[in-house]
Amino acid sequence: MSVTRTGEPDAPVGPDPHRWWALVVIALAQLMVVLDATIVNIALPSAQRALGMSDGNRQWVITAYTLAFGGLLLLGGRIADLVGRKRTFVIGLIGFAVASGLGGAATTSGMLFGARALQGAFAALLAPSALSLLTTTFTDPKERGKAFGIYGALAGSGAAIGFIVGGLLTEYLNWRWCLYVNIPIAVIAVFGAFGLLRDRPGHRNVRLDVPGAVLGCGGLVAIVYGVSEAESHGWSDPLVLGLLAGGAALLVVFVWWQNRAPSPLLPLHIVKDRNRAGCFLTMGLAVIGMFGVFLFMTYYLQVVLGYSPVKTGLAFLPLTVAIIIGSTQISARLLPHVAPRVLMVPGMILAAGGMLFFTQLTVNSDYAGELLPGLLLLGLGMGLTFMPVFATATAGVAPQDAGVTSATVNTSQQVGGSIGTALLNTIATTSSAAYITAHLRDPAQKALVVREGTVHGYTVAIWWAAGIMLLAGLVAGLMVTARPPRHAPADAAVPESVA
User: Fold this and answer.
1) Same-domain pairing of 350 and 467
2) What transmembrane ranges does the database entry give (predicted)?
3) Which of 173, 203, 233 is the last residue of a domain?
4) CA-to-CA distance for 382 and 465, rounded, in angstroms?
């Protein structure tokens, strides 16, 4: 998830004698960034109760992180080029640790949301510099391929580790430790970075497109805030309409500015390519549904079915395993021989099929019979899609555009997750409230009706998610017309898409 500069001539000359230990430090930092999404998901129900969050606002724990991460990722890559990758890496680690400490100590929901946004901002510094350091530390192509494989395996396992560690910490210590746990990891990585990483100074001629970052991030925040406010105010409320219109206007100005900026954050020729634009759209739409499932399934398992945090974390593992199998064992083997959309379209249909299992949930659903098949189908479908999306989007780009293209795929992933979490949470809470109002006639039945209404809201939102995933499949089928690659995809493609 990062900006790489693989074609630059500033890599250190000769192999680094500490390069394999340096890989451990780099992978540890990336593991922390990846782990932080799922570990907080498991802790969210406990954090909501402790801080008194409303159902409409709880999604900000997720979206504050993903919005800041995705919105600032391209700028983070530029900063790494300007001030140096190692220095940016260390600043990112220290900032991430401080933000994690603030989040763990949060006494109000607003403090937690702010800390999560701060985490996302420092993750946007950390992720590009981590992968850039990896490409400059390993200069031999064979070693670089092996390093990317190890890096990808560790980063890809972050989600699974997050589910388990999040469950253990929440159940046996406190939800706050799901944030505090980043501090010792970051401290170890900082000391390792000072002792093991080497990098040349940054380029003084690099320009930062700060207006572009403000316009792009501001537009996304306004849209997500407008969607979240629709839960309490309604979609026709002037505040909601104003936020949505204002966000859209800022994004239009962002596009206009990118055509005129001396050093644009996102060179528009990258998104004008039909295949790349199709990949960016497919990724954004696909992730909308997946992030929604993470949120709803966590609450469904813990609040409705009464699972413990540890049991909830274990329940998600089949999804992670299915994503890794779909990406590394199916897509990676077939992509050299078939057109990318031959994998992406069935992948999205499979994922939508998995969603259909979740639309049948009740207050007493059985995990093995109703949840597990859906998780496996969703995971396989996402795995089939992620790999060709990343490989196709980054194929055939000029060396100077490789980093920004890679970052744009990941930006679309984070932005899709932000908008999707806010949108689906609003749909779920609105549908739940309407159901409870319509069915609550006997006060003695209130507890049951509330549980039924909660599940009803989840299923309505998941129907929308399934439809969005089918739309992603349609976009992939119509826009991604690339032929099978002549060579196997780059070593970086598998780890990036899995991570």
Assistant:
1) yes
2) 20-40, 60-77, 89-111, 117-136, 148-168, 174-196, 208-227, 239-257, 278-301, 313-335, 342-363, 375-398, 419-438, 458-480
3) 203
4) 13
Q: What does the DSSP 8-state code read for residue 366? A: -
Which of 221, 294, 272, 289 is CA-nearest to residue 69? 221
Residue 425 lies in a domain: yes
Q: Are residues 292 and 319 in the same domain?
A: yes
pTM exceeding 0.85: no
In the structure, what pLDDT confidence band is assigned to residue 395 with cuts at 50, 70 and 90?
Answer: confident
- 341 & 470 share domain: yes
Would you say residue 1 lies in a domain? no
d(CA 5, CA 399): 7
283 is in which domain, residue-wise?
Answer: 267-499
Instruction: Judge if 124 and 243 occupy the same domain.
Output: no
Count of other CB atoms within 10 angstroms of residue 248: 14
Same domain, 300 and 426: yes
What are 47's two structure tokens? 């954090």
Domain CATH number, residue 360: 1.20.1250.20
Query: How do residues 207-251 score in pLDDT, each as one tens digit?
Result: 778 888 889 888 888 888 888 888 777 888 888 899 999 999 999
How many CB atoms are closer than 10 A to CB 362? 13
End-to-end CA distance of the chain: 8
Domain contains 354: yes
Q: What pLDDT score was predicted for residue 400?
A: 63
Contact 307, 315 (CB under 8 A): yes
Compute the average pLDDT of residues 281-292.
86
Over residues 444-473, the pLDDT tens digits come to 778 888 888 999 999 999 999 999 999 999
Contacts for 392 with CB less than 8 Å, ≥ 6 apart? 275, 276, 279, 340, 480, 482
**Residue 215 CB contacts under 8 Å (≥ 6 apart), including other chains:** 250, 251, 253, 254, 257
174 shares a domain with 235 = no
CA dihedral 111, 112, 113, 114 (to 10 degrees): 50
147, 134 in Cβ contact below 8 A?
yes
Count of domains forming the chain? 3
Rounded Cα distance between 84 and 212, Å, is 21
Residue 402 tokens, joined? 């490789």
Q: Do residues 359 and 478 share a domain?
A: yes
Verify that 189 and 222 share a domain, yes or no. Answer: no
Residue whose token pair is 């494989």:
149
